[in-house]
Amino acid sequence: MSAFFMFTNERRVVLLTESKSVREIAKQNKEKYLEEMGTYKKRKKEESANLKKDEDEMMKIHKQEALQLLKKKEKTDNIIKELSEEDKQTWNEKAVKAKEPRWNWKSTTNLQQWRRKTTTTHNSKSRLEY
């Protein structure tokens, strides 16, 4: 016999002693299911409401930050307009220097120099190890 048949035989005996029919048990199970489903749906609605509130709060924060950045930009624009031409030129030179790449990988000479450095150190180490 399989385990299922053994379980159903044991269960049948218990049900007969309780004198409940299968339909009564099914009704009880259905009621229990509906109660659990109701609580589940309520919990899901609450969670979605909480998520929506959180999203709304984040949107408000982002809007405030955007306004602050806009105000800062306006202030810097006003400061730049007030600068003399000499001051503007010095700041532009500093900006150009800051934007310059430290190492130009597109340049073939720089890349070739880098390859020479790495291959010579690698080869010398490997020779020493053997």
What does this structure look like?
This is High mobility group B protein 13. It comes from Camellia lanceoleosa. The chain is mainly alpha-helical and 130 residues long. The chain has a domain at 3-84. The chain has four helices and no strands. It has helices at 3-18, 22-82, 85-99, 108-129. The longest helix has 61 residues, at 22-82.
Topology overview:
Layout: H1 3-18, H2 22-82, H3 85-99, H4 108-129
Task: Give a concise summary.
The protein is an all-alpha fold. It is built from four helices and no strands.
Number-wise, the strands total 0
Biggest sheet features: none
The first-to-last residue Cα distance is 71 Å
- Structural class, by secondary structure, is mainly alpha
Protein name: High mobility group B protein 13
Give structural attributes.
elongated; 4 helices; 130 residues; mainly alpha; single chain
